[in-house]
Every structure is written in structure tokens, then in C-alpha cells.
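Researcher: We're teaching a course module on how sequence relates to structure. For the next exercise, students receive a sequence and then see the predicted structure as C-alpha cells, so they can try to spot secondary structure elements on their own. Here is the exercise chain.
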Amino acid sequence: MRCLHYWLLVILLITLTTKAFAQPIGSEWIVPGQPYYKIPTAKAGSYQLTASHFQKTGFNLSTLDPRTIQLFHRGREQAIAITGEADGRFDPNDVLTFSGQANDGSPDSALYRPAILQPHPFYSLFSDTTYYFLTWRLGVQGLRQALKCIPSTAGVPAETRMVLTTEYPAGIIYPLGASASSGSILSHYDEGEGWTGPLVAQGQSYSVVLPLTEVIWVDSLPLRMQAWAAGRNARPHRVAWWVNGKRVGESVFENYQTGRFEVLLPVAELGKPDALTVVMEPLTEGDRVS
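Model: And here is the predicted structure for the students to work with:
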């Protein structure tokens, strides 16, 4: 009976080990020996590559089937469009188009322990530039953009985003309430650490203006506003939020946490302004936030 138990244990361990090694590690998109061209982007927009771009990097267009071209970003293949690729040649007038973006803070979440302590994922701590990787593989059809027909009466959502980067609070200094000269800071990234706007104390307020010039208004759809405030001292925080002169709510949080505030603004009450003026006001005596 003891031998039976022993062998069952060995089989179980082998099964668990095999499953552990089968887990994806994030580099599965890389094929050894296959060339990859690194394309930097630092702004959201539509990017185009022509035959001259490829020739400058040493592409042999005479042997390249454009239908096999693939574009990757952070390990995921991106849908692209190539005009004239149906004939299997990249001709001088053919164009490759893809939607690129600026870098954001998503990869930085790995620096925080745990990752949920990252104040927000909208802005990188290190660089505005991200990279796309272009390659091709014989016999493999690259991912292509699908054409969509959008009715002219359909509302198109628009987003306005502003990330303030005037200060970089160090997060929690231990023990709570200690200063940089009398306390300690963890080596990994901690709660409240990251780029914010300026420090605002109780009795002060801070405002930002968000342009809405590209918004397509739909009377039945409210405007969704999200805002964050980070605690800058070890105490309870209570922050009031104002939009275009009207108080729309409060956020309550502790110590160096990041307080998230969200509100739906009905179009009937808001009107259809060209901009929103958002005001943050700390309410508790001794409050310091940013």
C-alpha cells in the first residue's frame, strides 16, 4: 500500500510540473531567426509606411509578399491595412497603415507590489515612446483591419484625457507620517507613488480645463467623468469635486491611497459646453492631496 501511495504522488508531481512549464511566458510571438523591425511611436494616430520606408531599412521588396506582413505590440498582433497587397507584391504606390499609440503606464504595474497599488495606467513613469515590431512569415497571413459601415446617425464616443505630471510623490514613507529624512522608502514602487499634479492643501483648490470640441452629443447618453486624487500625508482625506461651478460629489480615502471619483453628467443638466472646468477641493483640516 505504501508503494501505491508513493507512485501516485510521483505521477501527480509530474503532471503539475508539466502544466507549470506549459504556461505562456509572453514571448511566444517571437520566432527565432525571423527578422523584426522596431517602429517607435510617441503619439496616438494613424501611421503609414511606404515602399521607400521599407527600402531604407534593407527590405528586398521583390521577394516580399505583403500579405504575410505582421505587426506586433506588447506581444499581440495588431490589425493593419495594406493597399494593393492582393497581387502579392508591395508596389511603389502601395501603403501600409496602422493605428499607433503613445506609451502608457500599463507595463509599469509590474513595479508595484501588488500591481493594484499603481495610481493609474494612463502615463508611463519613464517614456512617452512605445514600440511596434514589424515582421513577415512565409505561409502565414497577417492580421488585417476589417471595414466597418457606421450609420451617419450613430454617435461616436470621444475621450478627453489629461494626466498631470508636475510632481512625483514618493508614496508611503515608513513609518506612516515620517519624512524622507527620518523614515524609509521601499525599494519597489508603493501606494501613492507616481506622477501627479501639484500638492493642494485644505483651504486651497486646483482646477483643470478639459476641452470637449470633438464630442458628438447624444441627449440620451450622459457624459462620464473620472478623476483621481492621491493622498500626500498620513490621515483620512475628503475631497470635493466641482464641474463647471456645480458640486458633483466627494471622494473619501486614507493616507497615501489614490481616491478614484466617477460621476455621470446628464446632458440635460450639463448643457453642451465646449469644455469642462473640473475643480478639486480638499475639505478636511490638515488635508494634503495631489
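Model: If you want an answer key for the exercise: Residues 156-290 form a domain with the Jelly Rolls fold (CATH 2.60.120). The longest helix spans residues 2-21.
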